[in-house]
From TrEMBL:
Official protein name in the record: SAF domain-containing protein
Alphabetic keyword roster: Membrane, Transmembrane, Transmembrane helix
Domain SAF: 42-104
Bilayer-spanning residue ranges: 15-35
Length: 206
């Protein structure tokens, strides 16, 4: 009896080949999308100086840079997103891209600025934008002495440090601070009572 060889399935009909072909196509398409996305840039705002918490945001404080942000692009402000009445919700460092989370409106601002005089000078590393603590020593009764120092306001940011007038300008002992409005009454009361105030950078001892 004569036997006939079984016909082999066509190569192109092999399901495994078709699956492999689809995977290769998907892989190529994915790489192409990643490369195309990496090449796309978006104009966003970059701070050209340190902007402290509570400051009004103005176009002159920023430059426009083209960056590739991918899927997080919505988290940063473009030039057209900057509106009147916006303030910094936190300190924005010089050169930092302006994140949407770092902005707020003036009506919702919980901070204000106040100038205090430090009784022990201001550390050299303290500058605009530095987070600090405000310590105070209450005066004792009629003997010129002061009580033990304690924290007056913990959540404080330096807004500016003015320079003294004169030919050889030096740092003055005055410093402008950004403080929570809830702490204003206590700070003013300490100043009026003649307490000794001092600025302590976070991470330093008293």
């Amino acid at each position: 009896m004569t036997t006939h060889p079984r016909a082999r399935r066509p190569f192109w009909g092999d399901i495994r080949f078709l699956i492999g072909l689809v995977l290769v196509i998907l892989s190529i398409a994915g790489v192409w999308l990643i490369v195309s996305s990496a090449r796309e840039t978006t104009p966003v705002l970059q701070a050209n100086r340190t902007i402290t918490q509570g400051e009004a945001l103005a176009s002159g404080d920023f430059q426009v840079v083209e960056v590739s942000l991918g899927t997080v692009v919505d988290g940063y402000l473009a030039p057209q997103d900057l509106e009147p009445g916006m303030i910094a919700a936190r300190t924005v460092a010089d050169g930092e891209l302006l994140a949407a989370a770092a902005t707020g409106d003036a009506e919702s601002g919980r901070t204000t600025n106040i100038v205090v005089e430090s009784s022990v000078g201001i550390p050299a590393r303290v500058e605009a934008g530095t987070p600090v603590e405000l310590w105070y020593s209450p005066p004792l009764q009629d003997d010129g002495e002061y009580d033990a120092p304690r924290i007056l306001a913990a959540d404080v940011v330096v807004a500016s440090i003015p320079e003294s007038d004169g030919v050889l300008a030096e740092r003055s002992a005055a410093v402008e601070l950004v403080i929570d409005r809830a702490d204003v009454a206590d700070v003013l009361a300490a100043i009026n009572a003649g307490a000794a105030l001092s600025i302590v950078p976070l991470g330093s001892g008293s």
